[in-house]
Here is the input.
Amino acid sequence: MLSRLAENVYWLARYLERTENTARLVRVNAHLLLDLPPGYAPGWLPMIDIMGGRERFDAHSTRGDEREVVQFLIADRQNPGSLITSLSRARENARTLRDLVPREAWEHLNTLSMEVSDTLPQGLSKRARFDFLNRVIGGVQTMTGMLEGIMNRNDASEFMAIGRNLERADMTSRIVDVRSAQLLPGDTPELRPFENIQWMSVLKSLSGYQMYRLKLQTRVNRVDVLEFLLRDDEFPRSYLFCLHEVEYCLKDLPSHESVLRAIARLRRFLRRTALDELDQNGLHELIDHLQLHLSRIHDRIAKTYFPQPGPVRIPA
Here is the structure.
């Protein structure tokens, strides 16, 4: 498989996953703000931190209120992490892959991209936003299902799965880091009844609440949520599960040794970590470590399989 095509397939999967994650985060945050006491609700700025866009947002925004944040996350075409940018880039990658991607999937993504662009103002309206986000989530999930259901199992599908799972692992770590830092103060007994609502929102941000309850059959609490989202072997969006999936796909590709060694080291580190002993600072340091190593894994994949920039030529 050509390295250029491998890179396009990889980023198609990442942009699709990013589009869905962004839509889900905005939807869940709106619900969380309705459930928490007004004086302690985290507001909308944590969404910017989760998506890693605070510096860009602060450079162009003044108030940081709901309207500005939602505009930035959903409709700002200058924001590389916005919903509309991610979906547009997914479409552009799919357009270059029409010989590899099933025609039905390409047509679906093309239609979805045009519909989202046409109805973008609905995403900024409180009244229509929920339905708009649900259509985006459903549309991307349909696309993912079509690719899973009818695409040949070859190198292209392997790179697609690698991209999807690296994006999922990255988003899971970001949500755990920022959301846990925004929890209500532990020294306020009157707010303790709301603690499980916040951890429920962490799970719902990853569509993991029902699967958490199904597996653990216990009330939502900090240690169990961390264990479920970071180290569960069955939940598809847990950090460790995503690493397993990337590792499994890489084994079918050539020249995979260095990447597999990096994944194995990260997996061992995560399994040895005592999650129940971590305070908030310790958890933040753990997430920094996980994200740094995930970035290194991406770099090794890119160096091994994707086109490399040529030497800089100095004119005579």
The chain has one domain: 3-305. The mean pLDDT is 88. DSSP finds 15 helices and no strands in the chain. The two ends are 36 Å apart (CA to CA).
